[in-house]
Amino acid sequence: MRVPLFALLLWVAVPVAAVDFSHEVVPLLRVHCGECHTGNAQQGGFSMNTRTAMLAGGDSGTPGFVVGKPATSEIIARMSSADPEYRMPSKAPPLPPEVVAVLRQWIEEQAPWEDGFTFKGVGYEPPLALQQVELPPVQAGRTNPVDRIVDAYWQEQKISRPPRCDDRTFMRRVSLDLIGLLPDPDRVEAFATDAHPTKRQTLVRALLDNKLAFAEHWMTFWNDLLRNDYTGTGFITGGRKQITKWLHRSLLENKPFDVFVRELIAPSDESRGFIDGIVWRGEVNVSQTVPIQFAQNISQTFLGINLKCASCHDSFVDRWTLKETYDLAAIFAAQPLQLHRCDKATGVMASPAWLFDELGQIDPQSPPHKRLEQLAAVMTKPENGWLSRNLVNRLWQRLMGRGLVHPVDALRSRPWSEHLLDVLASELVHQEWNVKQVLEMICTSESYGAATPAVVGQLQGSDYLFHGPLPRRMTAEQFTDAVWMLADAAPAKPDADVDRVAHLKSEPVAGSADNGGVPMVRAVLMKGTPLMAALGRPNRDQVLTNRPTDLTTLEAIQLANEQSLANEFAKGGVRILGQHGPGADAIVKWIFAAALARQPTAQETTAAREMLGEKPTNESVADCLWAVVMLPEFQLIR
Question: How are the residues of the chain apportioned to helix, strand and coil, as percentages rounded to the nearest 5?
């Protein structure tokens, strides 16, 4: 069919475990270097508060380390020196070789640094309750509350307001964002020629009303956050349960988010797989027992709080303590829980309690199921701003490429707009926890509908400035669905046990795919494949909030050589030639319109004609389709 783009020799070696920045590097730097070089202490002008500060060096101008080169790094030289005048730390005994070895390996591995982390501390705690926000004045007729806040922000930051993206780009973007599917080419053309001033708002509402497509697209989002899958660790041994039927139905019904959370925290048999976690086989670290998983998972998924570090000891990277983690875990536990610090028993017993006394507490004398009901009630109070802020921040990240708070699992990081975060969170609560209302507010804003800015040169970390929606890679499920749509190659039946037929609509809306009135099976309903794994679909043994964004060697190999993908393109070649051939120009126009929501340029048309040949064949059409699907433009949402 086609010649692979490259060949690669793979050497098999025993992998060395990468250094864990949060649990290995941070504690060492804090204990051995923190007194002189973190927070406000900058002895010799050298600060370790951030990676950038360490690379900048101190008064001498010598970088603290050279990325990838520990042998020429200043901190390794000083830590290894026998000269007491040169050695670090200067007021303590020489560091043990194993400590230096950890830092040496960290530098060899390119000195990875957790995004947003600083030794100086965030110095920020969001108020528990949502704040009343007075919206700034309307500018240029942009009345959406999102635009009113963003326009004032851009004015304050002296950022030029970006232009609108064109209509074809908008339709492709919002279709992939809200229902996860490419828009139909004919509907794209009709939308682009429609002169009605509110057509974008109408499109957004139509997409949100497509219940089945919406639900099955957002299952990917929730499967990751709720660790839900159809195969993998724990299922064979009975140590793990699916919540697939409950989740699919809840999304179809657009279940209010507070009810959604309560049914997961105090679950029925159908929804209890999330809090029951995974019963690992063999010996496991105490921090991976089911009650501790419960504390970690509900805090990360619903509150944007990462308790994993605080599951072994008081957190080095946040304010949360070991006691708070165990007390939260004790709400779930059927037996008394003893605190373990770094896997060693402390003799201290946990008492069932949750993180925010101000909202109410749990009765420690109640049986576990009653404690869970109490937790579900107190966690979903409207006064709990952590719950609503966390969800809208995740939705903003999904639609805009980066959260208002970054990273999304660190809600104690200062958002770039506290007002916008609380306006969106208040919208969620005031609209009776209707998630679609928040999505509609964001997607009908001019800020969402703007052209994507240049990514190169944008400030990161605490210096980040919002310039507009960032381009994002398709998820593995979106990519797979898109190929199946183009090639008419979707499976006949889903692996997931869900009821789709009862919710079919007689008339599909913009962006939907149907086959004889039955929407195609979606990738989210199928077990993961090697290609999906290469494209970033996780095994979901843990809560996952961010998928990989960088192209990997494995992904490139899979895209070029995966036989199942080649078979799908072959099927697409037959379909496209039969429906849109035999002329090359018509084939090229359809492929570009269906895949990219635009017509090809003259240069692209010429290249495609050469690929198709004078008389297109099934194989040459499949090659042309493959070439378009491999374009970054296809694989990006922008």
Answer: 50, 5, 50
- Would you give the DSSP letter of residue 47? -
Helical segments of 471-524, H only: 476-487
- Rounded-to-10 torsion of CA 34, 39, 45, 47: 70
For strands 514-515 and 518-519, give the pairing. Answer: antiparallel
Q: Is the torsion defined by CA of 118, 122, 128, 130 positive or negative?
A: negative
Report d(CA 369, CA 267) in Å as an integer. 9
Left (φ > 0), alpha (ψ -120 to 50) or beta: where does 527 sit? beta
Quick check: 495 and 527 in contact, CB under 8 A? yes
Reply yes or no on whether the pLDDT at 3 is more than 50: no
Which H helix or E strand runs over 331? helix 322-332
Q: Would you call 567 exposed, middle or buried from its count of C-beta atoms within 10 A (0-12, 13-18, 19+)?
A: middle
d(CA 133, CA 155): 18
Q: Enter the tokens of residue 388.
A: 């609503």
**Per the structure block, which two tokens stand in for 353?**
């309690």
- Round to whole Å and give the CA distance between 337 and 327: 8
Q: Tokens 């999505």 label which residue? A: 439
Residue with tokens 């009650």: 291
Going by the DSSP 8-state scheme, the letter that residue 22 receives in this structure is I
Q: What is the per-residue pLDDT across 76-123, written as a single tens digit (0 to 9) for each?
A: 999 998 888 888 888 788 888 888 999 999 999 999 987 767 776 556
Tokens of 98: 């194993």
Provide the CA 556 distance to its chain's centre, in angstroms.
21
Residue whose C-alpha is closest to residue 132's, from 419, 439, 438, 432: 419
For residue 517, what pLDDT band results from cuts at 50, 70 and 90? low
Q: Is the pTM value of this prediction over 0.70?
A: yes
Give the pair of three-digit tokens for residue 230.
């159809």
Residue 522's nearest CA partner among 530, 536, 512 is 512
HSE of 170, CA atoms in CB hemisphere, 13 A: 23
Distance between CA atoms of residues 456 and 464, nearest Å? 13
Which pairs with CB-CB distance under 8 Å and at least 24 residues apart come from 39-44?
39/119, 39/120, 39/121, 40/120
Compute the distance between CA of residue 290 and CA of residue 272 in angstroms, rounded to an integer: 13
**CA-CA-CA-CA dihedral for 252, 253, 255, 261, to nearest 10:** -50
Q: Closest Cα to residue 111, out of 171, 169, 66, 60?
A: 66
Query: What angle do the packed helices 418-430 and 385-400 form, to 10 degrees?
Result: 110
Give yes or no for a contact between 491 and 444, defined as CB atoms under 8 angstroms apart.
Answer: no
The confidence score (pLDDT) of residue 552 equals: 84
Confidence of residue 25 (pLDDT cuts 50, 70, 90): confident
Per the CB < 8 A criterion, the answer to whether 25 and 18 are in contact is no
The model's pLDDT over 525-581, given as tens digits with 9 standing for 90+, comes to 999 999 999 999 999 999 999 898 888 888 999 999 999 999 999 999 999 999 999
Q: Is 623 exposed, middle or buried (0-12, 13-18, 19+ CB in 10 A)?
A: buried
Residue type, 82: A
HSE on the CB side for 240, CA within 13 Å? 24
Structure token digits, residue 555: 């992904």
Nearest-angstrom CA–CA distance, 194 and 192: 6
CA of residue 69 relative to chain centroid, distance: 32
How many C-beta atoms lie closer than 10 Å to residue 31's C-beta? Answer: 13
Torsion sign over Cα 345, 347, 353, 354: negative
DSSP state string for 233-300: TTTTTT-----HHHHHHHHHTT--HHHHHHHHHS--TTTTHHHH----SS---GGGSHHHHHHHHHHH
